[in-house]
UniProtKB/TrEMBL annotation:
This is Trace amine-associated receptor 8a-like. The gene is LOC116944526. It comes from Petromyzon marinus (Sea lamprey). Gene3D superfamilies: Rhodopsin 7-helix transmembrane proteins (1.20.1070.10). The chain crosses the membrane at residues 46-72, 79-99, 161-183, 203-229, 262-286, 292-314. Coiled coil: none annotated. Keywords: Cell membrane, G-protein coupled receptor, Membrane, Receptor, Transducer, Transmembrane, Transmembrane helix. It is found in: Cell membrane. It is a multi-pass membrane protein. Belongs to the G-protein coupled receptor 1 family.
Length: 343
């Protein structure tokens, strides 16, 4: 999804001037030619405090997931390896995307190098796209585990997971290369180009390109994931009624709990980014949507903050692992092999 600092253009002839930004460009903070802050000093301080809280929670929460899965053997399943990779993506959103986006949102100026403006936009697009691919891979893993459990060991192997991880990262980077067109004035004309004040780090994105590369992958992926999880839900209900052997009950309960946890993460992601996609659909019919656009983008980013909370509230082994890590009670060799659900 193109949730950079963008203005969506209806066609190739659309241009952005000072009036598009909602305010005249002028020098701010000594030598930055930008729109400048629209918030009062008190509101800026409050906004910074709130966003910094979410940034810290995003970084530390996802770091907690990474450490838990990397350390505790019980958590090192194929599904959780994908979840670890998703946590890495969310970690980088908190570390590389949210802090710089925060400064721009509050001060309406880009205080960093022009090249980093383009790189930040590319990373933003790549990481959110990577999250969508991660969720699709996780849905496939849960589908096989619940709907075809006997063939799960042969269908989802270490090699399969490695291919999915490559798709999540390399595939996302390749798919989002159109964002790099903005680096070239020739290639970017009519597609993705800089606009507005020189130090605003704003981009004009062709609306057709945005739908093709930004929205279609989201809606297509979410539609497929919903179909998969509806199938998982129906099969899981049948299994709960039919399975009687204690060993299979334990196995299927574990798989169902994993599906529930990961399904909650998928649902949170969908709901978090839905306002953004709705706003983009109605964008051509309204003016002065810059504030709303900023708000819905931040709602989307906060999905990266919520995931650790979902793990802790829904999944007991993760909750136990988080507790041990926070108490620094996980350095012994025995702790690595603990049966977390029993502690």
């Amino acid at each position: 999804m193109f949730c950079g600092l963008v203005f969506l253009a209806l066609d190739n002839s659309t241009t952005m001037d000072n009036s598009t930004t909602g305010s005249l460009c002028s020098l701010h903070y000594e030598n930055y030619n930008c729109t400048g802050p629209s918030l009062s000093e008190e509101d800026r301080i409050l906004t910074l405090a709130i966003i910094i809280f979410f940034i810290i929670a995003t970084i530390l929460g996802n770091l907690l997931i990474i450490v838990a899965i990397a350390f505790f053997r019980q958590l090192q399943t194929h599904a959780n390896i994908l979840a670890l990779s998703l946590a890495v993506s969310d970690f980088f959103i908190g570390l590389l995307i949210m802090p710089f986006r925060m400064m721009h949102a509050v001060y309406q100026c880009w205080f960093y190098a022009s090249f980093f403006c383009h790189l930040h936009y590319f990373l933003d697009y790549t990481l959110t796209t990577s999250s969508i691919i991660h969720l699709s891979c996780i849905a496939y893993d849960r589908y096989v585990a619940i709907c075809d459990p006997l063939r799960y060991p042969t269908r989802v192997t270490d090699r399969t997971v490695a291919v999915m991880l490559a798709l999540c990262w390399i595939g996302a980077a390749i798919f989002t290369t159109p964002a790099l067109l903005s680096l070239s004035p020739t290639l970017s004309r009519g597609t993705i180009e800089r606009g507005g004040c020189p130090d605003n780090c704003m981009f004009i994105v062709n609306l057709g390109l945005h739908f093709a590369y930004g929205m279609c992958p989201y809606f297509l992926s979410m539609f497929i994931i919903l179909l998969i999880y509806s199938k998982i839900y129906r099969v899981a209900r049948r299994q709960a009624r039919r399975v009687t052997a204690d060993r299979w009950k334990s196995t299927m309960k574990r798989e169902h709990n994993a599906a529930k946890t990961l399904g909650s993460i998928i649902g949170c992601f969908m709901l978090s980014w839905l306002p953004y996609d709705i706003l983009v659909i109605i964008f051509p019919f309204y003016k002065n949507t810059s504030v709303a656009y900023e708000v819905v983008c931040w709602i989307g980013y906060i999905s990266s903050t919520v995931n650790p909370i979902l793990y802790a509230s829904i999944n007991r082994p993760f909750r136990m692992a988080f507790g041990r890590i926070l108490r620094l009670d996980f350095f012994s060799a025995e702790a690595r092999h603990l049966e977390l659900s029993k502690h």
